[in-house]
Write a structure and sequence with these properties.
Shape: globular
Order of helices and strands: HHHHHHHHHHHH
Structural class: mainly alpha
Strand content: under 5%
Largest sheet: none
Number of strands: 0
Helix content: over 70%
Mean pLDDT: 80
Radius of gyration: 19 Å
């Protein structure tokens, strides 16, 4: 059952990616991130007033705060890299994240995979790589951009650490408490970052007498919050199952690229459809192998 929860999480994550792309188009990265996280925190805060979220001790709060810090750091590094490097470089490297999670799962949690699961992971990751390389980026000038590769590597490693850390804390913590408190901590940190960024921008623009480019509100930002909450909920539910394998869950979540793929083909009318359809078929085949090996 946990594999089905992971697939549902991947679907929600795919819709989240579409909302994120629409929200970030010609918009402030920090503004979109801060606003979406604050909306998520507002939506989850009422749960603190009910019995849905149990009280946790100081040690638990510290460990949940560490998760918030890891996730937010990975997001910020990833956005910086995506903004300054070609997508044909960023996407394939980000697709390697489940491999690092798989390595950690084997070394740290000593997870054992059967033949179908190994085949599913291999086919899915290979298809994700092929899907990433099917996007062509032309005319990029890479001179002076080596610094941003550091952010890309940090985003990948921090993302892999997040998955392994989630598996660790879900062994003992209530998933509702983890989701609510980690979102609240993210909102606090992102709010501080937004305020500092705006003040720095004001000072910088005041020196050259240039107006500040305001954050643009878009309703897709609400979609970011809603679908991220849904994706995290079923993701943590999958990991809370003692039989779940983080290596498999992490790979399945990467298959959420199916949704942005369909959005790009049907709505944005992107080109190179044949190559991308083959990659999509590979992702679906990998998911079938994972389900056969799990159910």
């Amino acid at each position: 059952m946990w594999a089905l929860w992971a697939i549902l999480s991947a679907l929600f994550l795919g819709v989240y990616d579409v909302c994120k792309k629409r929200s970030l188009s010609e918009n402030s990265v920090v503004g979109v991130l801060a606003c979406s996280v604050l909306i998520s925190a507002t939506m989850l805060t009422p749960a603190l007033l009910t019995d849905a979220v149990p009280h946790v001790d100081i040690r638990s709060h510290v460990m949940i705060f560490i998760k918030s810090l890891l996730v937010l750091s990975s997001w910020l590094c990833g956005y910086i890299a995506m903004k300054n490097l070609p997508i044909s470089i960023v996407s394939p490297m980000q697709a390697s994240r489940p491999m690092w999670t798989l390595l950690g799962a084997l070394l740290i949690f000593h997870e054992s995979l059967n033949g179908w699961q190994w085949a599913g992971i291999a086919v899915t990751l290979g298809s994700v790589f092929a899907f990433s390389f099917s996007v062509r980026h032309k005319g990029s000038d890479q001179r002076g951009k080596g610094y941003f590769y550091i952010f890309l590597v940090l985003a990948i490693l921090l993302g892999a650490c997040c998955g392994l850390y989630d598996k660790h804390i879900m062994r003992t913590f209530d998933r509702n408490a983890v989701q609510v408190y980690y979102t609240l901590y993210q909102a606090i940190m992102m709010g501080i970052i937004w305020i500092v960024t705006v003040k720095m921008k004001k000072c910088e623009n005041a020196k050259i007498n240039r107006p500040i480019v305001n954050f643009q509100w878009r309703w897709e930002i609400v979609g970011i919050s809603v679908f991220l909450i849904l994706s995290d909920y079923v993701y943590l539910k999958a990991l809370s199952d003692p039989d779940s394998l983080i290596a498999v869950v992490s790979t399945i979540r990467r298959a959420g690229t199916i949704i942005p793929f369909l959005y790009g083909i049907l709505i944005l009318r992107e080109k190179q459809i044949r190559a991308k359809v083959l990659c999509l078929a590979g992702i679906l085949l990998g998911l079938v192998c994972l389900l056969i090996g799990t159910l």
